[in-house]
Design brief:
heterodimer; A: 273 residues; mainly alpha; MetI-like fold; 2 domains; B: 282 residues; 11 helices
Chain lengths: 273, 282
């Protein structure tokens, strides 16, 4: 080993320790959750559970455990939220990217509102209004609340995705006699699809994880997975809460690992332009 | 293009945007305005400051507690984001950079409510943090304490939001001109000086956007304070939920909501003022 490499050892060791600390800060809490999800018995002052097992998993997934029902409700709400958001965000994104709009900046800013303003006042009062018109505790009510928040990402990403499509390709299609609709359907839409899929995933995840809005608007009949987790946790049942939390983690982490495949740098750079 | 043609084209553009705008207005803007109305409406329909006075009387400690927690979290998120993004940009050991890049993002899409549950077990008196600290001899078993108070909320917020700001800042740093950084390093500047004198000033805008967005988001998180520190003093969001679920007191709840809106607006104003001064310098 050369003298230079030898002199670098303390630095390398320091780096390894620092990276170890970061790893612990990230994975320590996750590992703790994992242990709780598989703990049969875990009393103070034991460092790890006295008994591991799956009996709480059986309880969560039993017909009376509510978890499968809540999971179904959560996914159904998320699918409807994505459908509604894309239905209105795709035309809006296309118009913002391609057509002349006088108040374009102002309109883009309006779609940013739900991200830039604390949401609590909105949820509180929308719950009050929904209660009066009978939308409280309904799937539709929850979907409307989720969609109004999801639209931020949907519109901004859709607009960036359409903007990144090369206009000369559309012109070529139009010159060969394609109608505007055919051109949009066969050229623009397929080219913008990766960005639109990314925005759909974002909206889906946001809806799946949403808690505060559902807490106010969904009561008493709509129990999504986050609400089930919250109730289990507040009731002191850490195993059930941890298992439900793990179920919620799977899509979040899967998306974190693949996000860059869908959101290409050129689309990301166009967000907010 | 004739005027008539332009007119139909823009008419079509507005028609395409209208449905999305309608959703935002109906389910976001109008409820927000309703909040302002209800906070000032007396029982007889007149104008009053009574609800504000009551909210201030009952919850001024919690308001200070909320602002303190969110400000401290924002500062810590900024420090963590600068440190990680800075190393990702300027680090010399490619393997360490790759490991850090893989590590830091895990909490990125983990929801607040799951973060709350994770930290509730991790930071408890018999949680893993204390076991590791005791096991490594850093603290005595008897001095182990629960961190499930304001500290727990701050840890949960930083753990969840720092990766988001890091992602933004690291992206901005990656798009800087590499020649600038190399030139400075060739002149013999130390890495920390390069970070603070050359890299940071160019990504300050992105950093501020990330921090302001985090600040506003943390202000209206209900699940984390409710799970980690539900007892007084606690965050305003918990008080709002209590006023509504237990007392059906929309007036005081809305007064509290408006107070947190004012705090958020102060944060946004701070950012806009900075952005304006930046533009006038450029």
């Amino acid at each position: 080993m050369s003298a230079r490499a030898l002199s670098r050892w303390p630095q390398m060791l320091g780096m390894a320790v620092l990276l170890g600390l970061v790893a612990f800060a990230i994975f320590g809490p996750l590992a703790n959750l994992f242990l709780w999800a598989f703990a049969e018995k875990w009393y103070f002052p034991n460092k790890i559970p006295q008994e591991f097992g799956f009996s709480f998993w059986a309880r969560v997934f039993s017909p009376r455990g509510n978890a499968l029902g809540s999971l179904g409700t959560s996914i159904w709400i998320a699918v409807l939220t994505v459908a509604l958001s894309l239905l209105v965000a795709v035309p809006a994104g296309y118009a913002l990217a391609r057509l002349k709009l006088r108040w374009r900046g102002l309109i883009l800013l309006a779609f940013l509102l739900p991200q830039a303003v604390p949401n609590l006042p909105v949820y509180v009062n929308i719950a009050r209004v929904f209660y009066e018109i009978g939308l409280n505790g309904t799937i539709l009510g929850v979907v409307l609340v989720h969609a109004s928040h999801g639209l931020v990402l949907a519109v901004w990403i859709a607009s960036a995705a359409f903007a990144s499509v090369d206009p000369s390709l559309e012109e070529a299609a139009r010159n060969m006699g394609a109608s505007p609709w055919t051109c949009f359907r066969t050229v623009t839409l397929p080219l913008a699809a990766p960005g639109l899929i990314a925005s759909a995933i974002f909206v889906f995840l946001e809806s799946l994880d949403e808690f505060t809005g559902t807490y106010f608007v969904g009561v008493p009949d709509v129990t999504t997975l986050p609400l089930l987790m919250f109730n289990a946790s507040m009731g002191g049942n850490y195993q059930i809460a941890s298992i439900t939390a793990l179920l919620l983690l799977i899509p979040s982490i899967a998306f974190m690992l693949v996000v860059e495949r869908f959101l290409k740098a050129d689309v990301l750079a166009g967000v907010g332009r | 293009m004739t005027d008539a043609k332009t007119a139909t084209a823009s008419w079509r553009a507005y028609a395409l945007v209208a449905p999305a705008l309608a959703v935002i207005v109906a389910f976001f803007v109008l409820p927000l305005m309703l909040s302002a109305v209800l906070a000032f409406r007396a029982r007889d329909g007149g104008f009053t400051f009574e609800h504000f006075a009551k909210a201030w009387d009952l919850y001024q400690t919690d308001l200070a507690f909320t602002i303190g927690i969110v400000l401290l979290s924002t500062v810590l998120i900024g420090v963590v984001a600068i440190a990680i993004a800075g190393y990702l940009t300027l680090g010399e050991n490619p393997r360490a950079v790759a490991i850090l890049r893989w590590l830091y993002r895990w909490p990125l899409f983990i929801p607040f409510i799951v973060t709350g549950q994770i930290m509730r077990t991790f930071l408890a008196k018999n949680g893993m943090l204390n076991h590791v600290l005791i096991g490594s001899g850093l603290i005595e078993p008897l001095s182990a304490q629960s961190l499930l108070d304001w500290r727990g909320i701050v840890v949960a917020f930083v753990w969840k939001q720092a990766p988001f700001v890091t992602l933004l800042v690291a992206g901005a740093m990656a798009s800087l001109e590499p020649q600038h950084i190399e030139a400075a390093r060739n002149l013999g500047a130390r890495r920390l000086r390069v970070l603070f004198d050359i890299v940071l000033p160019q990504v300050r805008g992105t950093l501020l956007v990330g921090l302001v967005l985090s600040f506003v988001t943390m202000l209206s998180v209900l699940s984390v304070p409710m799970m980690i520190n539900p007892n007084s003093p606690t965050m305003i969001t918990v008080d709002v939920a209590y006023r509504i679920s237990t007392l059906s007191d929309y007036a005081v709840a809305n007064a509290l909501c408006l107070m947190s809106l004012i705090v958020a607006a102060t944060g946004a104003w701070f950012y806009l003022r900075h952005a304006a001064s930046e533009r006038s310098q450029a």
